[in-house]
């Protein structure tokens, strides 16, 4: 059912690398539920390939749509691995840290129904991580004259509530003189045994039953957590030790883009997602050794500040549905990005991952971000790029604040480097009906679609592709130069065909990574197959600017010829949002433009032709603005740069914003935040109109 597993988590190099990581990012695929078992959803769709050391590739294969997505995580537990195993490998080390007075954090993150509650809380027969951990902590406390207390909280809509002793007032986050977080108003209840704990009333329910489990109300989503405090006496020094560990069950991740913006829970979802993004940024920043960690960006991260810091250790467990589910794909994509960006810092090897289009796009965005970070932080280090051991990156938050101030971006780069940036991500359109390339051509083509991700040196033997140093015969010189001589490792898989159709673009992503040593050219057994499996066979890049403009132009033409339609608007106004969303159809829309205008007034009642014209032009403007925004929210860098007022810097910045929020531009005023003046916005709009 599950894919092959290879390797073990015992590589010493890997261990050394992992020890530096403050937050491990792992996955857990939940077993099929009774209703799923035996159904069509039960077909093998998720596979895990583990590599020597601490990395695992999770591949989703949707047989119906032929879509394949693969994500690299620090590790992934398969369906048949139980919670005890996760406890031993991931949580026990944190508990041992707790015994020495260190804080720890266990976070369950994932889509709805992915097994978060089961993992953290468990059920009557199968204790979750909390219960297993508490058993060990209590045993330790009894042996070491220690005491244990617990708190339980809920973070909903940016308000924190005490679940053990509910009060009218919310819990406040304060910082003491030593900069430690104090949760004012959150009760701590002493616990001496598991049975004591089971008797606790968690907001009207018992821990063993439904604590940390949200009520079955799809409109309410919140983060919940249980903190266990341990105070003990160190036998050797006889000093007192105080540590705490937080078990967090995050609210379900929902991909807002996919669900549409018209839902009543949109504001709630947006808030929750923002807090999740911030959390993942923190994970990334911590693992990358950033100095500045943007805790204040959300209440969740502020609340977790003491548990997610340089002095503590944590594990983020991404719970995965075993069947294809867009929310799960998006959730694991984000988790994977956060650990891969961190990996680029920590380890100096490279691995190529070929995966579905979403992953490609997101990777390339991250990669762009990395370049920006490098540039913004220390110009002189650009030429050394990732080969430098120095930390040169900023957090996404910092980037957002900094990136538009990079007035000297162009000047701080040598001419070659300047050229290198845009060319690092190139597009190649495959001709219509072109026949599949032969093997050697295919190799060349493949070299253009590689996604490069940095991973642990220890896992190089298992790398799913051929690694090429500067002497690779297949390597195109152009590719090498695009990222500079010192920092580029060009990577190209063996075999695997890359066919594209008319609208498919192949994205070149060549990333500068500091690799200390060359990897062997041959992947381990079976990995070649894996390459095929995860190879990009589709790429859903956003349609080119010309296609988008053509769509608008056609729509406008339609308007001018279909006055009768305007006079009798279709009642199906809901189609408006659908058409204007993330994945616009590059073809001429089938629905007449007039009926797609949002809030379109009834023209019959307006009066004179002049009034009708005015009303229509308002609608047109609204539509055009929406198209512009949708375009800015989805276009790739080159397309963005095709717009007036958007150059390299601004395009990079926009991509960066999109990493943090799926839809950063919701109205025209948001464009001012990227430094566009009203005049520039108008010019951009006129450019679009000019094509008509
Ligand atoms: N390890 C497991 N063993 C057996 N069943 C599991 C396991 N993990 C999850 N499940 C089952 O999967 C389903 C979803 O699990 P769970 O309720 O924990 O997910 P969730 O992410 O907390 O969902 P929600 O967000 O809706 O609360 C449940 O029916 C649960 O019994």
Protein model, in words:
The chain is 37% helix and 17% strand. It is built from 23 helices and 22 strands. The strands form seven sheets. Strands 1, 5, 6, 7, 8, 11, 14, 15 and 16 form a nine-stranded mixed β-sheet that branches. The N and C termini lie far apart (54 Å). Mean pLDDT is 64; it is low at 1-19, 204-218, 348-543 and 560-606. The site of adenosine-5'-triphosphate (ATP) has 15 residues, from α3.
Break the fold down into its secondary structure elements and pairings.
Blueprint: H1 12-20, E1 23-29, E2 46-51, E3 55-62, E4 67-73, E5 75-77, H2 83-99, E6 104-110, H3 116-120, H4 129-143, E7 147-156, E8 159-162, E9 172-175, E10 181-184, E11 189-190, H5 194-199, E12 201-202, E13 205-206, E14 223-233, E15 240-249, H6 256-259, H7 266-287, H8 299-303, E16 313-320, H9 326-346, E17 349-353, H10 357-377, H11 396-403, H12 415-424, E18 425-429, H13 439-447, E19 451-455, E20 466-468, H14 477-482, E21 490-492, E22 505-509, H15 527-534, H16 545-561, H17 563-567, H18 575-579, H19 593-596, H20 609-634, H21 637-641, H22 648-660, H23 678-690
Parallel strand pairs: 1-5, 1-16, 6-15, 6-16
Antiparallel strand pairs: 2-3, 3-4, 7-8, 7-11, 7-14, 9-10, 12-13, 14-15, 17-19, 18-22, 20-21
The protein binds adenosine-5'-triphosphate.
Adenosine-5'-triphosphate is lined by residues 30-31, 33, 110, 112-118, 213-214, 252, 319.
């Amino acid at each position: 059912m599950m894919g092959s597993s290879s390797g073990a988590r015992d590589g010493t190099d890997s261990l050394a690398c992992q020890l530096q990581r403050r937050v491990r990012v792992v996955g857990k695929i939940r077993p099929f539920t009774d209703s799923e078992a035996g159904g069509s959803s039960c077909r093998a769709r998720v596979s895990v390939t583990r590599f020597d050391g601490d990395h695992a590739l999770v591949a989703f294969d949707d047989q119906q749509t032929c879509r394949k997505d693969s994500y690299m995580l620090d590790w992934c537990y398969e369906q048949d691995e139980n919670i005890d195993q996760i406890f031993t490998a991931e949580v026990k080390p944190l508990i041992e840290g707790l015994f020495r007075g260190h804080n720890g954090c266990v976070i369950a993150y994932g889509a709805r129904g992915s097994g978060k509650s089961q993992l953290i809380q468990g059920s009557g027969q199968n204790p979750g991580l909390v219960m297993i951990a508490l058993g060990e902590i209590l045993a330790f406390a009894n042996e070491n004259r220690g005491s244990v207390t617990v708190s339980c909280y809920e973070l909903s809509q940016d308000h924190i509530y005490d679940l053990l002793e509910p009060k009218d007032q919310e819990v406040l986050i304060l910082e003491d003189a030593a900069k430690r977080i104090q949760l004012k108003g959150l009760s701590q209840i002493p616990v001496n045994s598991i049975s004591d704990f089971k008797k606790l009333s968690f907001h009207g329910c018992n821990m063993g039953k439904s604590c940390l489990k949200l009520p079955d109300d799809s409109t309410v989503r919140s983060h919940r957590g249980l903190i266990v405090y341990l105070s003990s006496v160190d036998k050797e020094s006889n000093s007192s030790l105080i540590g705490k560990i937080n078990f967090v069950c995050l609210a379900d991740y929902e991909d807002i883009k996919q669900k549409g913006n018209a839902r009543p829970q949109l504001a709630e979802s947006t808030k929750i997602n923002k807090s999740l993004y911030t959390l993942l940024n923190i994970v990334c920043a911590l693992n990358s050794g950033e100095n500045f960690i943007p805790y204040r960006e959300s209440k969740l991260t502020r609340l977790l500040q003491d548990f997610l810091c340089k002095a503590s250790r944590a594990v983020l467990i991404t719970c995965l549905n075993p069947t294809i589910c867009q929310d799960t794909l998006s959730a694991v994509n984000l988790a994977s990005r956060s650990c891969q960006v961190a990996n680029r810092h920590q380890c100096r090897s490279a691995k190529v991952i070929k995966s579905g289009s979403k992953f490609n796009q997101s990777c390339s965005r991250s990669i762009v971000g990395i370049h920006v970070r490098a540039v913004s932080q220390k110009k002189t280090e650009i030429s050394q790029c990732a080969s430098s051991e120095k930390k040169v990156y900023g957090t996404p938050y910092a980037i957002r604040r900094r990136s538009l101030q990079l007035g000297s971006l162009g000047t701080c780069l040598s001419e070659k480097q300047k050229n290198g940036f845009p060319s690092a991500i190139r597009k190649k359109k495959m001709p219509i009906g072109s026949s599949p390339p032969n093997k050697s051509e295919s190799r060349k083509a493949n070299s253009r679609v590689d996604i490069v991700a940095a991973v642990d040196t220890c896992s190089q033997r298992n790398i799913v592709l051929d690694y090429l140093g500067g002497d690779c015969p297949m390597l195109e010189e152009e590719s090498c130069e695009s990222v500079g001589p010192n920092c580029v490792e060009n990577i190209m898989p063996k075999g695997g065909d890359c066919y594209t159709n008319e609208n498919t673009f192949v994205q070149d992503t060549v990333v500068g990574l500091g690799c200390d040593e060359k990897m062997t050219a041959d992947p381990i057994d079976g990995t070649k197959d894996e390459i095929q499996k995860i190879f990009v066979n589709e790429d859903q890049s956003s349609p080119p600017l010309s296609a988008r403009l053509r769509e608008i132009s056609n729509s406008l033409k339609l308007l001018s010829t279909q006055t009768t339609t305007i006079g009798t608007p279709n009642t199906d106004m809901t189609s408006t949002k659908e058409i204007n969303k993330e994945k616009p159809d590059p073809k001429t829309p089938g629905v007449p433009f007039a009926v797609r205008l949002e809030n379109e007034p009834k023209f019959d009642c307006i009066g004179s032709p002049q009034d009708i014209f005015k009303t229509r032009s308002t609608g047109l403007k609204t539509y055009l603005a929406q198209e512009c925004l949708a375009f800015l929210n989805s276009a790739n860098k080159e397309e963005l740069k095709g717009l007036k007022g958007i150059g390299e810097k601004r395009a990079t910045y926009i991509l960066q914003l999109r990493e943090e929020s799926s839809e950063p531009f919701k109205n025209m005023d948001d464009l001012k935040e990227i430094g566009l003046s009203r005049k520039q916005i108008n010019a951009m709009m006129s450019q679009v109109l000019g094509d008509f």
